[in-house]
Amino acid sequence: VLLLGTLLWAPWWALQGAPLAELSGEQDFQLFLHKNLEFTRKIKGDVAALQSVVCDTFQLCQEEELLLVQQHLGITQAPLEQCHSLTFQAEVCLSQIRDRLRTYQGSLSVVLELLPEHTGLVETLQLDMANLSSNIQQQMEDLGIATVTYPAEDESPLPTFSSHFHRQVGSFFILANFQRFLETAYRALRHLTQL
């Protein structure tokens, strides 16, 4: 666990020497960052609540036990490599966060089908994700930041689940991957507040 924590945190050490975005000190940008850090924290809490429901309902709680099924299903994490890179640029990282939020928003349809009794929570989460993505887009436009679009074809499409169990495991990994994505996005936003 310590090694994993070190590996996840290591890219942020390198960012200390990253070139500063010209906009990092602007008051509006700092307000945007702080507001959306809180928004990201709320979304993380909602994803954790859904993970808990999947764990309690289907007894799918331990990732290690399901890795072979994950490989079979081909569910991968939407990358945020632009938020780790040694050539970190705020506008590129924010563009990637925005686009990956849209990817995960679509992926939650699998969870919605599996947990119809939790439709309210899933739909609230999807709405929050859409709002966070829109906030990022609007802030970038307001500051005149060039946006980069990461095409959807870069992402693996959701697999066709051949059984109810595969759909359960797929939902488990969609939520687990989304939680990791949010942790990276949160660290990127927090890093930008410190520049």
TrEMBL record:
UniProt keywords, alphabetically: Signal
Signal peptide residues on this chain, from the entry's feature table: 1-17
GO biological process, one term: positive regulation of myeloid cell differentiation
Keyword Signal annotated: yes
Protein name, UniProt field: MGF factor
One Gene Ontology molecular-function label: cytokine activity
Native species: Ceyx cyanopectus
InterPro entries: 4_helix_cytokine-like_core (IPR009079), GCSF/MGF (IPR040117), IL-6/GCSF/MGF (IPR030474)
GO cellular component: extracellular region
Family of this protein: Belongs to the IL-6 superfamily.
Domain of life: Eukaryota
Residue stretches spanning the membrane: none
Family annotation (Pfam families): GCSF
